[in-house]
Hints:
single chain, mainly alpha, 73% helix
Amino acid sequence: xxxxxxxxxxxxxxxxxxxxxxxxxxxxxxxxxxxxxxxxxxxxxxxxxxxxxxxxxxxxxxxxxxxxxxxxxxxxxxxxxxxxxxxxxxxxxxxxxxxxxxxxxxxxxxxxxxxxxxxxxxxxxxxxxxxxxxxxxxxxxxxxxxxxxxxxxxxxxxxxxxxxxxxxxxxxxxxxxxxxxxxxxxxxxxxxxxxxxxxxxxxxxxxx
Length: 208
């Protein structure tokens, strides 16, 4: 490797330990497992950037292939301004862990049990994203936007997630039945509070 490449690799790895990288990958694996096996199969609508993408696709007929990168980049640019380059560098790692999409679904189809799907899906997403956020990164534009809102407003992270999700889901009522929106609200409430809990969790120290 040239000295320039070595220097770039060193700058990228600053602040990253093997433990942190493994936890980010674990979080991404848990999150994408839930999305692939539950959300995508049961058609539980997402809030945040994903829900906004679906809204734009429905009303403006713009392909997700175009609108999703634009929305994600916009959120990350905003996060870069307020959270710095370290946040972006750590977030890059989680973006490459989509292994579950290479396999068929591994859980039973919960389409006939939307409440169970909403709660279980929220647990997977909340735990996975919480692990990533705990390491100082994000799993996508949704997290980058919520973290930026939390940083600027000083709201709890769960409130920032709920704000973006609820706004998008309410807008989605223009084309999605209210029953489906209710279950989507349940899953985002579960995931947002779980993200906040995992991020701030402090294990008790045993007294020797």
